[in-house]
Amino acid sequence: MIYELTQEFFFDAAHTLERTIETDSSRRIHGHTYHVLVSLRGQPDPKSGMLMDLGYFRAALAKLRDKLDHRFLDEIPEIGPATLENLCAYVWRELEGELPAIARVTLERRAGGDRCTLSRD
Ligand SMILES: Nc1nc2c(c(=O)[nH]1)N=C([C@H](O)[C@H](O)COP(=O)(O)OP(=O)(O)OP(=O)(O)O)CN2
Ligand SMILES: [Zn+2]
After folding, report:
1. Structural domains counted in the chain
2. Tell me: the pLDDT tens digits for 72-116?
3. Contact present, 114 and 84 (Cβ < 8 Å)
4. 7 burial class (0-12, 13-18, 19+ CB within 10 angstroms)?
5. Where is the signal peptide (predicted)?
6. Does 15 appear as a known binding residue?
7. In terms of Cα–Cα distance, which of 75, 80, 64 is closest to 7?
8. Phi and psi (nearest 5°) for 101?
């Protein structure tokens, strides 16, 4: 049996996107509310009973949120084109140092019903 511990946060950000459909509206600067779910996987420490203290987990996510909330994502070159797929990869890269048990990252734009998940295994 394995445990999965999940935290969620959201951020609001703007971007543009080059596409071959709906080109004009995508090229215009527009914004989305993104919900980010991050899961850690593993076994709890027998003494603490925790996979990771949620205090440390939340602190790592808060630092990342500061880099994304109310930003123009086109100005963050490490993301590349600001798609859900690239944002999942960016979030993973940003967190894996502090959260080595990271196992799944999901980005959602709930207003449009869009969701993308990156997972290990
Ligand atoms: N595979 C992907 N396709 C698209 C992505 C993506 O991240 N991955 N992103 C977009 C754009 O961000 C686009 O702005 C979303 O377009 P759309 O679905 O038409 O939604 P709207 O912006 O019109 O409406 P919301 O309710 O704000 O989502 C396109 N394709
Ligand atoms: Zn968009």
Report:
1. 1
2. 999 999 999 999 999 999 999 999 999 999 999 999 999 999 999
3. yes
4. middle
5. none
6. yes
7. 64
8. -85, 10
Quote ipTM for the complex.
0.92
Question: Residue 108 is part of a domain; what is its CATH number?
Answer: 3.30.479.10
Which residues sit with their C-beta closer than 6 Å to ligand 1?
17, 19, 22, 26, 30, 32, 83-85, 109, 111-112
Q: Which amino acid is at 44?
A: P
Q: In terms of residue numbers, what domain contains 115?
A: 3-119
- Residue 121 pLDDT level (bands cut at 50, 70, 90): confident
> Is 35 one of the annotated binding-site residues?
no
33 alpha carbon to ligand 1 midpoint, in Å?
A: 11
Residue 76, both tokens: 């963050």
Q: Which two tokens stand for residue 117?
A: 């998940």
